[in-house]
Design a protein that fits this description.
Radius of gyration of chain A: 22 Å
Distance between the termini of chain A: 6 Å
CATH class of the largest domain in chain A: Alpha Beta
CATH topology of the largest domain in chain A: L-amino peptidase D-ALA esterase/amidase
Number of helices of chain A: 12
Shape of chain A: globular
Oligomer: homodimer
Helix content of chain A: 25-40%
Number of domains of chain A: 2
Largest sheet of chain A: 5 strands, mixed
């Protein structure tokens, strides 16, 4: 795979993520696909760590997704193993076997049960994962475990990503300071329907597994589920949230507990930050696009409309070409099959209203809209004037870079 | 708008369309947008001509679509006026006024009623159509009416099309020879949900309007509804079928009449031919792609899966790059949310099976699949192994040409 230029939307600097008590990291080079870079991550969790997870809704889920779904009900986690290069998807019984060999190998090295080892893989579909190469790295990984090496972990899971994606937040539960760290990858095949490519969040908060799951689901709905690069939902989408319980807070029994308000907000902030970084590193992305739809019949309807705009090749290429061709936004609303009032609909580009009474405003400034489309941070707002539903979606433009990357990914 | 290279999939030669008794043609240059080419078509129909029509399901339909919907119930047609350059969509009351002015002008010139004049427009959304420029051409158009100038008509409705699209067939009803001619345009914003960009079919058959409508709907389901270029459904999709009744056949009262069997087949053939020409002239297209899905829960389910494959940017770029990355086909089936059996699904590329038992076949020949993807005529078959539903969809690859064309359409 050829190296691609770093996204112009890459962060100017990366946050330094503090250690999370109860989580230790190591990375290695498996020799499966990549050369000259680590492609394997092990996270070791302290006993008592709880897990929550959300996975792709694809009917063709990968073997690691099926594994995680199987072990998640226990809510217990002792390790996470992630490899980049081969996704272990559509690999039949060999795929299930590779998963078992990996989990057994990690469990043996760390002295835990196989069903406490979470797995995720990203890369080419349909190739058999040589799990023995992962297991062979376990002694080295275990010996190299460090309290805090989030950057190495974020780098090791990259595929066509052009920058590592990290986010962190602190908040309080019952007066105790809690840390939430996350990292993720993703740049193509990104249209998560309930999770995203691969995202991992670790906190030292003490929370029951069912509460963790409810919190993850709610925050996911405001973060990764607001993201699309190309409308292509992956077979491997996985977001996992681990809570080591070392912060010393009380383990509240309800996700809606008022004492978790700050935590809910911080978790959503970390996950939103990561989701926007994925949009900013969408394959070939030159511009980050934020689409807000209001006035829809429901929030769900607003999301369908926002995604229809965000996934439209014609809207995305217009943004790429800085052609403020707002008629294509009209088209995308129209094709969504969701209720919208054509004659009262209001489009705003860069905060300035373009339409009124079913047509262009007399004072529409095409030059200003074009200038906004030339910026790195494109904002589109659409009020469809039939209700109170609202949704936000992040995406990127569709450029020659996307074609370059994807017409030649496997080679 | 810059000229773009002619699609490599353009026909080697164009069919010569015979005259259809009762239909006469003229084209002109309106001066609205284009220079040096005609952009306006008038078809004059003999009294007694019946019409059928299907239109976009977009909630943002253009003014000409609303006009046609309004006048269609009478089933009577005396004229069709089509312009290219401005779509007259999202133009509020000014758009409705432009439609009225155009229909009145044509009716006056031809001596018929305004509500017997069908209208269609294609081009930029959101711009007001200067109808007076169309009306100004009416005397010249009327004076220039000829029995047979299908090629000029097909050329006059082109926008980003790189070749004119024509098809013809003859068949018999009750022993009387009937001609069916059609022409159409479309290369981007093509994902018709019940019709296509603009397609016009004219026959000399004698058929009641309601029978014509039923025949059109059935044939459309096997032709234009099997087509997608970019998944972007137009606000202007219109397919109109006119029957002048000059062939001298008996006007059978039921679309399902056995004596119309040959006509049904010929109509579907003409419309399928046109639909495939649109796929072959998809913006930036280098390859025509035919996707057959079988074994689905229903025909409707098969179509959703076939469209999911056909609209996947990752599948389309893989074909563009001749990378037989069949894992992306798996992904596209998986994201469709339709029933499919992962472990029994069979993908064929160029007629050769790639998968078995939920993984790649041991004898899969990647080089042969790659070679097939290098051809101009790419065939993908997927059996999803859950039922008997089947569907075919035509599309094209996603290339740099699509970006070139659409990042700079308005300028």
């Amino acid at each position: 795979m050829a190296a691609h230029p770093v996204s112009p939307l890459a962060p100017k600097s990366y946050p330094t993520l503090p250690a999370v008590a109860g989580a230790r990291f190591a990375t290695a080079l498996s020799g499966i696909r990549y050369k000259g870079r680590d492609d394997l991550v092990l996270i070791d969790f302290a006993p008592g760590t709880k897990a929550a997870g959300l996975f792709t809704r694809s009917s063709m889920p990968g073997a690691p997704v099926e594994w995680c779904r199987k072990i998640l009900p226990s809510g217990a986690a002792r390790a996470l193993v992630v490899n980049a290069g081969i996704a272990n998807v559509f690999t039949g019984k060999a795929g299930a076997q590779a998963v078992k060999v990996t989990a057994d190998g990690a469990a043996k090295a760390l002295g835990c049960k196989a069903n406490e080892v979470y797995l995720a893989s990203t890369g080419v579909i349909g190739q058999i994962l040589p799990a023995e190469k992962i297991v062979a790295q376990m002694p080295k990984l275990k010996a190299g475990l460090k309290d805090s090496d989030w950057m190495s972990a974020a780098k090791a899971i990259m595929t066509t990503d052009t920058f590592p994606k990290l986010a962190t937040a602190k908040c309080k539960i019952d007066g105790k300071v809690v840390t939430i760290n996350g990292f993720c990858k993703g740049s193509g095949m990104i249209a998560p329907d309930m999770a995203t490519m691969l995202a991992f969040i670790v906190t030292d908060a003490k929370l029951p597994a069912d509460v963790l799951q409810a919190l993850l689901k709610a925050s996911n709905n405001q973060s990764f589920n607001c993201l699309t690069v190309d409308g292509d939902t992956s077979t491997s989408d996985t977001v996992l949230l681990f809570a080591t319980g070392k912060a010393g807070n009380t383990a509240h029994a309800k996700a809606s507990d008022k004492r978790l308000a700050e935590f809910r907000k911080a978790l959503t902030a970390v996950m939103s930050d990561l989701a926007q970084q994925i949009a900013a590193d969408g394959e070939g992305a030159q511009k980050l696009v934020t689409i807000d739809v209001t006035g829809a019949r429901s929030d769900a309807s607003a999301r369908v409309i926002a995604r229809s705009i965000a996934n439209s090749p014609l809207v995305k290429t217009a943004i790429a070409g800085a052609d403020a061709n707002w008629g294509r936004i009209i088209m995308a609303v129209g094709k969504s099959a969701e209720p919208a009032n054509r004659d009262k609909l209001v489009i705003k580009i860069g905060g300035k209203a373009v339409t009124k009474n079913g047509m262009v405003r007399p004072d529409h400034d095409d030059a200003a809209a074009t200038k906004h489309f030339q910026s790195r941070d494109v904002r589109i707002e659409v009020d469809v004037a039939v209700g109170k539903g609202a949704a936000r979606v992040w995406t990127c433009d569709l450029t020659h870079g996307y074609i370059d990357i994807n017409a030649d990914y496997r080679s």
